[in-house]
Write a structure and sequence with these properties.
Amino acid/polyamine transporter I, mainly alpha, Recoverin, domain 1, two-stranded antiparallel ribbon, 2 domains
Length: 542
């Protein structure tokens, strides 16, 4: 696929997404969102990593973080230049064009829903510990599916103030983990030499394989870039927040992995030949007793459900963003009239997660999610190299630029490629499936419908100029008549109905482009009053 060679494309992409959302999220909010997306990884990955390389897994977390770092820096730069909903999909689509955009969008959707599914599968092991302690019989699979239905409904109902839910859970989780780490120092069997010696005795290939496996634990570090338009001083707060959250997670993961292996002797991560799937419960029980272990298990469940709640919201946004670019059918960008949420992307994501929970083993889910994320991080690093190389010709000049260019980006690309090779055939099968499905989607649908957005918008602006007060009132009345929800908002379908009633002859794809231009906060609805102000006389683009 040829790289896009239009200076207007880069400039207009930047202009369209800058300064359109209310910037309410500060540095603390950026860190909270990033950490909330990452921390659930430590509740499942340590024992599977230990199966690969033994007690020295702390070194695998450090290696994985070093491969994540270039991608985090690259995303900081890209989000500074293009702060928009859709995150990585937007950067790849604007850099490489709609074909790669479609492939990456579907790959990102799959990786996010798999990570969310991994949280709902992983929390079942902690629930078993809780139900066993209280002598309660319950079907874990039924409970996992019930939790999925609940969080899917919550997303549709629009209870999406994720920070309000995640902040207390995040702080409690960090406090719990810190307490466990301190308590581990006083365990009778504590042996500080064991994880240190085992780390360097493990083979290089085992280390690389373990690092590739735990990569998914860091995958959420750049998730906040998708809401770059809502961050105050994004050129400062986004890079600082991403780097600080990555530093905090790296230190926390490394210390927990080290102390966990130092405090518990033997190959405890295997029981009857099966990998233990609730390592934090086992760790907490060892250092502070069974009752505290049960408390840790309950908090672990809440943490992973919280992560899955945000994960459905994040993954569904990729389908929503792709539909806004006319790469997927219109229903995927239509929002519910009552709740004003993109219900179809949310439902499709929920169904896909259910299939993953029912039919894909936890270890395979982690491998697929890690594989997808490494591939995306590699591509994100190439985006920065391409945009920097062509900056004079194509107008790339973000306020924040990643340091150590291009050496750290090349490291991210090469190291990522090596890690993918250690995940095994499942990563290549997953990547191949994303390429095939993305290419098929683009050639069967996207290529026919994706059009330049600025042309129909300019045409509409000229046609919509109010010639008389009476005509203005007629148009205003038509827009309010189409507002079935009665919220002074129009969904895409309601907007199209209003245009049709007023006699504007635009194709479905052209009307979608006009709607997208007016939907400044990219939430799937437009405010009627703001729309009329935006398209009033004198608002034409010069």
């Amino acid at each position: 696929m040829a790289i896009s060679t239009s200076k207007t494309m880069i400039a207009s992409a930047t202009d369209e997404v800058k300064n359109k959302l209310k910037r309410t999220t500060g540095l603390a909010g950026v860190i909270i969102i990033s950490l909330s997306a990452m921390l659930p990884g430590i509740f499942v990955t340590p024992t599977f990593a230990a199966e690969i390389m033994g007690p020295g897994i702390w070194l695998a977390y450090l290696l994985a973080a070093s491969v994540v770092l270039p991608g985090a820096l690259s995303k900081s730069e890209l989000s500074s230049g293009m702060p928009s909903s859709g995150g990585s999909y937007v950067y790849l689509e604007r850099t490489y064009g709609p074909l790669i955009g479609t492939i990456s969008g579907l790959g990102l959707w799959a990786s996010f829903l798999l990570k969310s599914a991994f949280a709902l599968i992983g929390f079942s092991a902690y629930l078993i510990a809780v139900t066993t302690y209280f002598d309660v019989e319950i079907s874990i699979r039924v409970l996992s599916m019930s939790a999925l239905v609940l969080i899917t409904m919550v997303n549709i109902f629009g209870v999406s103030k994720v920070k309000a839910i995640q902040t207390p859970i995040l702080l409690s989780t960090i406090g719990l983990l810190l307490f466990i780490c301190i308590a581990a120092l006083f365990v009778d069997d504590f042996d500080a030499k064991r994880p240190l010696t085992e780390a360097f005795d493990a083979g290089v290939w085992s280390l690389a394989e373990a690092a590739a496996f735990v990569f998914v634990a860091y995958a959420g570090v750049t998730k906040v870039a998708a809401i770059g338009g809502e961050v105050k001083n994004p050129e400062r707060n986004l890079p600082a927040g991403i780097m600080l959250s990555l530093l905090i997670a790296t230190v926390l993961y490394t210390v927990i992995a080290y102390l966990m292996m130092a405090a518990i002797p033997g190959e405890w991560w295997l029981q009857d030949g099966v990998v233990v799937e609730n390592p934090i419960f086992v760790f907490a029980e060892k250092v502070a007793g069974t009752k505290f272990g049960i408390f840790a298990a309950i908090l672990s469940v809440l943490t992973m459900i919280s992560m899955a709640l945000a994960g459905i919201l994040a993954s569904s946004r990729f389908l929503f963003a792709m539909s806004r670019d006319n790469l997927l059918p219109q229903p995927l960008e239509e929002v519910n009239v009552r709740f004003e949420t993109p219900h179809w992307p949310i439902l499709i994501t929920g169904v896909a997660m259910a299939l993953a929970i029912l039919y894909v083993p936890l270890k395979d889910v982690v491998k697929l999610a890690s594989g997808f994320k490494i591939m995306i991080f590699i591509m994100i690093n190439t985006c920065v190299i391409i945009l920097r190389t062509t900056s004079k010709e194509y107008g790339w000049n973000p306020k924040y630029k990643a340091p150590f260019y291009p050496y750290i980006h090349i490291w991210g690309i090469l190291a990522g490629a090596v890690l993918i090779s250690f995940i095994g055939t499942k990563a290549f099968i997953g990547g191949g499936a994303a390429v095939l499905s993305g290419a098929a989607t683009y050639y069967l649908y996207g290529k026919k419908h994706a059009i330049l957005q600025r042309t129909p918008v300019q045409s509409f602006r000229k046609q919509f100029q109010f010639s008389t007060p009476a005509e203005h009132e007629r148009r205003l009345a038509a827009f309010h008549a189409a507002d079935l929800g009665g919220k002074n908002h129009l969904t895409l379908r309601e907007f199209q109905s209003a245009l049709k009633a007023l006699g504007f002859e635009y194709s479905v794809d052209e009307s979608r482009c006009i709607f997208h231009n007016a939907d400044m906060d990219e939430n799937g609805v437009i405010d009627i009053d703001e729309f009329f102000l935006a398209f009033a006389p004198g608002s034409e683009e010069e």
